[in-house]
Amino acid sequence: MPSKAPLLESRHVCRRGRNEEILLNSVNLTVRAGERWAISGVSGAGKTLLLRSLALLDPIDGEILWNGQTVDTRNILDYRSRVIYLAQNAAMIDGDVFDNLKFAFSLTHNNESKWNERQVNKWCSLFQKDEQFLKRDVHDLSGGERQIVALIRALVISPQILLLDEATSALDSQSVNIYERIIGEWLDEDLNNRAIIWVTHSPEQRQRVTEREIRLSAGIMQGDAD
Amino acid sequence: MFHALSNIDVAIAACLILINGAISIALKLGLEKKLAWASFRTIVQLTLIGFVLEWIFALQSWPIILGIGVMMTTIAAFSAVGRVEHQLPLMKMNSLISVFSSSWLVTAITLFAVIGYEGWKDYPAQYVIPFLGLVLGNTLNGISLGMDKLGDQLKRRRGEIELILSLGGSRWEAGQSSVRSAIRTGMIPILNSMMVVGLVSLPGVMTGQLLAGASPVDAVKYQIVIMFIIAAGTAMGTISVVLLSYHRVFNNMHQFLFDEIQSN
Fold this sequence. Notes:
In chain A, the strands form two sheets. Chain A has a six-stranded mixed sheet with strand order 6-7-8-3-9-10, with helices on both faces. Chain A is α/β, with parallel strands linked by helices and 226 residues long. Chain A is globular and about 45 Å long. Chain A contains eight helices and ten strands. Chain A has helices at residues 47-54, 76-82, 97-103, 117-126, 131-134, 143-155, 173-189, 203-209, and strands at 6-16, 22-32, 36-40, 61-66, 69-70, 83-86, 161-165, 195-199, 212-217, 220-222. Chain A has a single domain, classed as P-loop containing nucleotide triphosphate hydrolases (Rossmann fold, 3-Layer(aba) Sandwich), CATH 3.40.50.300. Chain B is mainly alpha-helical and 264 residues long. Chain B contains nine helices and two strands. Chain B has helices at residues 7-26, 32-59, 62-82, 91-120, 124-156, 158-166, 171-196, 204-211, 216-249; strands at 86-87, 262-263. Classes of the chains: A alpha/beta (226), B mainly alpha (264). The interface between A and B is medium-sized, with 32 and 20 residues.
């Protein structure tokens, strides 16, 4: 079977620090639809920086291609609503959980996306969160609950790639299972258009949810990942 | 009716500062030295500016007036960023652009459109320098407060800003709450003083005119003009500096350049 066309490609992506020191060095990576990547490496190896660079949240040298086209000032907003970075410390918008889940629709770029209440309720109930949960002030949420909100908040705008940065670090093991199941089902729903890249410190999780691995050491990719 | 003060009159007033000194010593506030230094600077700075103004008023030369104006504006622009806690990129440059454009524009509108060139063309120095000084003093405050608040908000809201960007939000959608909050903060002092002007204290310009023998109604008209030009100058300067700074910390790839903000 011929391999699928690349969704996301990074070409010679470098990231420099405040003093021009090189933090990520020439990362070349090709992510095809249906792929489940893990990024591994010791703390400080550049895993978060790589995910942020792939989401183009920071200025980089090199380029990122989306469906074969360079991402630039014209298509960056579209790109970011398709390739969503989920930070370990999930930030919240002031308000309640429901405000947060709907937040992305208030952004000009997403205002044509459709809000699917049934789907949201299904995800919430998988996490055993009822309607009361939607009314809770985000300031009262635990770190784990924030990670749940962050996941659903991203999924509602139908992204194509999720960049997960230790996204389950604050969850109990049961919730981690549910989280992984939701991601798995989401991916299987549209294997021709979706992929994940997951940073995790847990080798077990890496084994459960990913198939391919990028190993980073001091900002340099080890081995070949094409 | 204008009664000029003698040096002895000034010396008597200076004795009042001794009361502050006595309080400081009695309550162990430790402010005596600062108080003495501040009093000394008040006397020296004002005396010097008195001589400089005498000289400028005697000459009434446009090049000198403009030169002094440039100097005042530059000092105002740099001191506006002096005590700001978070350093934003190109802050001095942004402050300079904002202070210059807002204060000179507002002063020019006042002198040419409100008062009219005919009314002051024989004494440009008496009009240009005090008006510019009034606008600068207040614009400087607005700019300083606005920049401080912007840096603070951008640092504090980093998570929220990056979240908005990561969901496909534009840089404006990500930065607007910080920008708004900064502009609002810069405008608070002038709004407050407009709310209580005349009720709590008589503003300086009006007091000066009353002392010089102007009728209260005339003095009030001047003061109203002054309040409005100060408010306009502050608003323009604050908005300008906040928007310029916003453009330095967000690039056209809609990236938030957090590393460019440095804390003192």
